[in-house]
Amino acid sequence: MNEQEKKLKDSETALVSLQYLEKQLTEVETNLRELLQQDPGLGRQIMSMAAV
Fold first, then answer.
1. CA 15 to CA 24: how far, in whole Å?
2. How far apart are the C-alpha atoms of 36 and 21, rounded to whole Å?
3. What global pTM score does this model have?
4. Ramachandran sector of residue 15 (left: φ over 0; alpha: ψ -120 to 50; beta: rest)
5. Which residue, 36, 37, 38, is CA-closest to 47?
6. Does the keyword Chaperone apply (predicted)?
7. How many CB atoms neighbour CB 36 within 10 A?
8. Which of 1, 6, 13, 21 has the smallest set of CB atoms within 10 Å of its CB?
9. Contact 43/51 with Cβ under 8 angstroms?
10. For position 13, what pLDDT does the model report?
């Protein structure tokens, strides 16, 4: 495998990883939104933790 093929393979691997992370982030956002709807006080707790 030459250098160019290795770079292409690395780029493809990085893209797949990014797509996976994007999907996971969307899932986290959805879950967080649902939790906040169930318990609005949770948002205040999260913000106080983030401010530290």
1. 14
2. 22
3. 0.65
4. alpha
5. 36
6. yes
7. 13
8. 1
9. no
10. 96
The residue type at 49? M
Residue 35: which of 24, 23, 46, 25 has the closest Cα? 46
Q: What is the pLDDT of residues 8-51, one digit of tens each?
A: 999 999 999 999 999 999 999 999 999 999 998 888 888 888 76
Q: Compute the residue count for the chain.
A: 52
Three-class DSSP category at 4: helix
Residues 24 and 6: their CA atoms lie apart, in Å, by: 27
Question: CA dihedral defined by 12, 17, 20, 21, rounded to 10 degrees?
Answer: -140
